[in-house]
Design brief:
- The complex is a heterodimer.
- Chain A has one domain: Phosphoribosylformylglycinamidine synthase subunit PurS (Mth169, Chain: A, 2-Layer Sandwich), CATH 3.30.1280.
- In chain A, 29% of the residues lie in helices and 32% in strands.
- Chain A has two helices and four strands; from the N terminus they run βαβαββ.
- Chain A has helices spanning 18-29, 53-68; strands at residues 2-11, 41-49, 74-83, 94-95.
- In chain A, strands 2-1-3-4 form a four-stranded antiparallel beta sheet.
- The longest helix of chain A is centred in the middle third of the chain and has 16 residues, at 53-68.
- The radius of gyration of chain A is 17 Å and the shape is elongated.
- The two termini of chain A are 15 Å apart.
- Chain B is α/β, with parallel strands linked by helices.
- In chain B, the strands form two sheets. Chain B has a nine-stranded mixed beta sheet with strand order 2-1-3-4-11-10-9-6-7, with helices on both faces.
- Chain B has helices spanning 14-24, 67-77, 87-94, 151-159, 218-232, and strands at residues 3-7, 29-33, 44-47, 81-85, 101-103, 111-119, 135-142, 146-148, 163-168, 187-191, 197-200.
- Chain B is globular, with a radius of gyration of 16 Å.
Chain lengths: 96, 233
């Protein structure tokens, strides 16, 4: 089965984020004064083969721990999209 | 002192290191390909600066899994001397051979300029020849050298005397103005607990000849030579 995993990697709240601060400054310069904070991060989309959803999830978890995120400075969140059973063949719909 | 200079795809300071070791100091040095698995012939391994693997994902994150890094880790754990410069420092942290991480510069700018470094401890293999408080003038060239560690780790690094270099004013005062990248505690370089592994953002190999503006960087390489002499005695 082919799965799609979305991995969101963000700096931990205690870690200063100069890029986020700069983006916030840009938004303020455009007049979006209501913005209190911007945190910039990474968004990775993985397409992978796995026997089932549990295996796909644990593999992506392992990949993220080993390489995609650095636990010293980053947090992560994984969203797995599994093939829809009613999708009916290739290109079938995905559900979260 | 037999030195190996590790070359990853995207490393750019390998030849500067070889020039400093071979031409200036007259020490044998060879390049080590990132796919090599044996470092038995070496006394010192240098991870030079650059943009290994394009700095993709995080600086040093991909290089950390290159085949040679397993050998570098074994070499370091056996007490071999390892120096990580700039991108090499980032790789050593990703490999967990040194604590902390290096974030984007607080200014969000790439900084290429001369800085002053205060030597904080003279027990590491790369500062044996220095005096405590000595100021070294060495250039930096990086966009992500903003040293970070969580409060517990930072406290431990400070307590154990693992801070080797701090950014400072020419007279040695550690000031906010002399911090080029926002590093916590003005930290420019640290050692592991044994002092045989050191990482720093500034480039000592680019400050080894007066013609280039400073020869203060020689102190690190000469210290390594003396560290090996000590072991040999």
């Amino acid at each position: 089965m082919t799965y799609r995993a979305e991995v969101f990697v963000t700096l931990k709240p205690v870690v200063n984020d100069p890029a986020g601060l700069t983006i916030k400054g840009g938004l303020h310069a455009l007049g979006f004064d209501s913005v209190r904070e911007v945190r910039a991060g990474k968004y990775l989309v993985l397409t992978l083969d796995a026997d089932d959803e549990d295996q796909a999830r644990s593999r992506v978890e392992e990949m993220t721990r080993q390489l995609l995120a650095n636990a010293v400075i980053e947090d992560y969140r994984i969203e797995l999209k599994v093939p829809s059973p009613s999708g009916g063949g290739q290109g079938g719909g995905l559900r979260t | 002192m037999n030195t190996g200079i590790v070359v990853f795809p995207g490393t750019w300071s390998d030849r500067d290191c070889a020039h400093a070791l071979s031409d200036v100091l007259g020490q044998p040095a060879r390049y080590v390909d990132h796919r090599e698995e044996r470092l038995d012939d070496l006394d010192l391994v240098i991870l030079p600066g650059g943009f290994s693997y394009g700095d993709y994902l995080r600086c040093g994150a991909i290089a950390r899994f290159a085949p040679v890094m397993e050998a570098v880790t074994d070499f370091a754990n056996r007490g071999g001397l390892v120096l990580g410069i700039c991108n090499g420092f980032q790789i050593l942290q990703e490999a967990r051979l040194l604590p902390g991480a290096l974030l984007r510069n607080a200014s969000c700018e790439f900084r290429c300029e001369w800085v002053n470094l205060r030597v904080e401890q003279c027990e590491s293999a790369f500062t044996l020849d220095c005096r405590p408080g000595q100021v070294l003038r060495i250039p930096i060239s990086h966009g992500e050298g903003n040293f970070f560690a969580d409060p517990q780790t930072l406290e431990a690094i400070e307590r154990n005397g693992q801070v080797v270099f701090r950014y400072c004013a020419p007279d040695g005062r550690v000031t906010a103005e002399s911090n080029p990248n926002g590093s916590l505690g003005n930290i420019a370089g640290i050692a592991n607990a044994h002092g045989n592994v050191v990482g720093l953002m500034p480039h000592p190999e680019r400050a080894c000849e007066d013609l280039l503006g400073s020869s203060d960087g020689l102190a690190l390489f000469r210290s390594a030579i003396h560290a090996l002499d000590r072991v040999a005695v």
